[in-house]
Every structure is written in C-alpha cells, then in structure tokens.
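Handout for the seminar on molecular recognition.
Each group receives one record of this type.
Step one: identify the two inputs.
Step two: read the structure output and locate the region that could contact NAP.
Step three: write two sentences on what you found, then compare them with the reference statements printed after the record.
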Amino acid sequence: MNNNAKLRWGILGAARINQQLMPAIVAADNSELVAIASRRSGAAAETLARYAPQQENVRIYDQLEALLEDDSIQAIYLPLSNQEHGQWTLRAIERGKHVLCEKPLALTVADIEAIENAAEKHNVTVMEGFMYRYHPQHAKIKELIMSGLIGEVRSVRSCFSFMMQPARLYRLAENIENGGGAMWDIGCYAINAARLPWLDQTPLAVTAMAKYTDSGADISSSGIIDYGSGKFAQFDFSFERARRAEYEVIGTKGGLKCHNVWAKQDETPVLSWWTEGGQQCEEKLLPANHFRLEIEHFSDCVLNNRKPGISLQDSKDNCRIITAALQSAAQGHQIQID
Ligand SMILES: NC(=O)c1ccc[n+]([C@@H]2O[C@H](COP(=O)([O-])OP(=O)(O)OC[C@H]3O[C@@H](n4cnc5c(N)ncnc54)[C@H](OP(=O)(O)O)[C@@H]3O)[C@@H](O)[C@H]2O)c1
C-alpha cells in the first residue's frame, strides 16, 4: 500500500459542479490538482480563482485535448455536459488516463460497454460519479438492514426533486437523446437509489410515465421497477416540485428512511426507522463531505490497485433501467429488461 502518494488530477471542463469537486480534489489527502481545461476563453482560470484560490501552479488549458496530452496527469475528473461524457471518457482512456466521470457515464449501455473494453485494454480505472454513495449514511442503512431490523426487504421508494431555477432551464432545451431533461440529470439518482442492493433479485421489467416539455425533454417522471415475487422499486423525480432527495426501504417487519440523500458537508443527515414491534427511531448522523470521500476513494483505488465501489457493471445496469424507463414513458407500456 502507498500511504503518501497523491494521484495527479486534471479537470476536463469549467462546469458549475466544480464548486463542489474542485475543493474536494484540493482537500483530499491522496490527491493533487494539476490542471483544468475549458473550451471557453478565461473560464478555466475563473473557475480556479473562484473555487481553489489558494492553489498555485495549476495549469490552465483552453483545449480539452491539450489537457489529455499532459503526461503528468494521471486521472481526469470529467464534468462535461451529459451527452459529451461517453466520447470524452473514451478519449481520456485512450490517452492512458483514469477517469472519474460525472453521472451519467454515458447515454447507452453500448457506450458503457465500449468504455469498459477500452478501460480494460488500457489498464485504467473508470468510475461513474454517483458521489452520494460515499456518504457514510448508506453504510449505516446497510448495517441496519443486514441486522434484520426490518425483515426481508419487499419494497423500495426513491424520490428526487427540486424547483429548477429559470436560469438553469437550458438543461431542458436539449431533447432526451442528447442528454437533456430530468431523467439524465436527477432521474439517474432516483433509479440508482431505487436499485441499491436491498432487493436481492434481478429486475424483470420497468413501467414509467413522464411529462415532457415542448423541446421533448422530460421534466417529471414516475415509475416502477418489477423485481418479481411482488417486490417493486418505485422511483419519482421532478424539476417542478419542492426539494426532496430521499429513499425508503420497507421489509416484512418494518421500514427505514434516508431523509437527505444529497446531504452536504454542512447538513446533518437524518435516518429514521420503525418496526411492527412498535419501535420508532430517528437518528442524526455526523455530517460528511461525500464529494471529498468520492475523490479519496477513487484516488485510493488507482494508487493501490483496488476495484472502485461503483463498478462499470453497476453503471450498465443503471443505464439499462434508465433507457427502459424512458422507452416505457414514451411508448406507454411496460418494458421487459433483457
Ligand atoms: N454530482 C453532483 O452532485 C452533480 C451536480 C450537478 C451536476 N452534476 C453533473 O455534472 C455535469 C456538469 O453539470 P453542471 O451543471 O455543472 O454543468 P454546466 O455548468 O452546464 O457545464 C457543463 C459543461 O458545459 C460547458 N459550459 C459551462 N457553462 C457554459 C456556458 N455558459 N456556455 C457554454 N458552455 C458552457 C463547460 O465546458 P467547457 O468548460 O469546455 O466550455 C462545462 O464543462 C453533468 O453531467 C451533471 O449531470 C453532478
């Protein structure tokens, strides 16, 4: 094990989410920010000055390719627009870079398979950036479920929503095929959380409904994943509802709820559970920075040759449910999962 090494990161794109990830890379013990690139003149330097003003010697590139050609960079954090993720992840892999790509890793299962093959060929680590999975609150939930507290899990419900600010509505200008709309933005969280491995079975079918904008992007959607044997996972997400980021797991003896899946480092995570035996409990956990934990995890995987917590198989499975849900909502009937 290499305890002192730092993974050298380059950021591909001056996206807004750098507000969270850039300080996380700087703060992570096993990581070093080396460079950032943007295709817009001045945007990379502005992002650096805003989110990591104390950092010295960070290189600025005005071409994405130029950053990929920088041999001193080992890993790429990729927060480009959704429809660019697949192609730029592949380009980074071909340059021998490890890649942490924002969700969704790609818009089709075939694209993720291509990424998987390329990663294997070039011997690099690739992970989809579902940062929430690195918050310790989910490990606590797993511990409670494994203890038998709520019995055998029979149902999961996830719900993600917020009122989209008018300034951000450009996300809805793109149609779904180009990565626009609520599914690729927050629906992927709802499906990911609904798919957390509490229901120990393989999904059989998906049924979903959606409301669309004039440009063909979905703005609200709700659906059910059928796991068979009467076990269902429901997901629900919207850009035109008050903020919610939660999931609930119900078993044969009780249920539990994660109240803030997007809990930031200054927010106290709350879990609650109840049992048929009359137990009612609410527990406040210590705040944690899931962005930093995600970066530290990824760096550790690369530096110490470990498998990432979110596998490419998991990303393919998520994408398979997303695409089935999109198809079901568009066609108005249930879609079987291959
Ligand atoms: N994990 C999370 O909590 C979280 C939260 C929000 C978003 N995300 C994900 O992170 C990714 C980025 O989301 P975001 O909301 O941060 O994206 P964004 O600000 O819209 O930026 C995405 C890309 O678009 C380009 N861009 C940014 N502003 C632009 C402008 N004014 N005009 C033209 N191009 C512009 C940038 O590339 P150039 O710099 O090369 O121009 C940037 O990398 C998405 O995949 C999203 O799903 C994750």
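Reference statements: The pocket of NAP is lined by residues 13-17, 38-40, 43, 79-82, 102-103, 129, 131, 185 (CB under 6 Å). The first helix runs from residue 18 to 27.
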